[in-house]
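Final report, closing paragraph on structural work. Over the funding period we assembled a curated collection of sequence-structure pairs, and we close with a single example.
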Amino acid sequence: MTNVVVLIKQVPDTWSERKLREDDYTLDRDAADPVLDEINERAVEEALLIKEKHGGEVTVLCAGPDRATDAIRKALSMGADKAIHVNDESLHGSDAIQTAYVLAAALGTVEGTEIVITGNEATDGRVGSIPAMISYYLGIPQLTHLRKLDIEGDKATGERETDEGVFTLEASLPAIVSVNEKINEPRFPSFKGIMAAKKKPIETLSLADLGVEADVAGVANAATTVTGATPKPPRAAGEKVADEGDGGNAVAKYLIGQKII
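Its predicted structure, as stored:
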């Protein structure tokens, strides 16, 4: 039996307009439709495939405000067994270092975890360092940016594709892995799964429950600070070049003016 914990995150829909708050320059999460990050659906799917092959239990872990329960319920409707929701106002504006620390503390409350699965990066931040940071905090191996994952016995084997080729990685369990978009195609929740998700347990934990001091998290205590932001200018109309025999020269002149060539 293999017990898996999947880290999930509720993010603003990538098709919605995103903007920063004017008071602290954190992402305004009320300005866009919240959804379960698509890469997390693939992480959940991979955990379910492991469960179907080896047995065990799938737990989803999410840090976020009250509305994050919608993302949690979707993961449960896909087939996860239970969830942990770290919900604390002090988390607002936490950077990657703080977030990884809190998630590592939450993972410490789950007994018998053999593998932790995450997406390679969240679409609202694109930091991509959380899995490595959790690996450091927990002192467990990491296999990141995997396109394929296999669990056999007490060992995890994965494939990572890079510009230099495809590498095979191995680690002993327990371990943390991050997956990319090539790992699988996530299943759609069935009606039965959606109804069952309403009855599945969600344990809500505060920072105090985790033994984490409030001043460890939050925008005021973050190691990184955004001091200003300017909205991108509206896209200008492109320049048209009429080819009257000298179109090539006109295009070359334009590219030189833009310092492209």
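The mean pLDDT is 93. The domain at 4-221 is CATH 3.40.50.620 (Rossmann fold). We thank the funder for supporting this effort.
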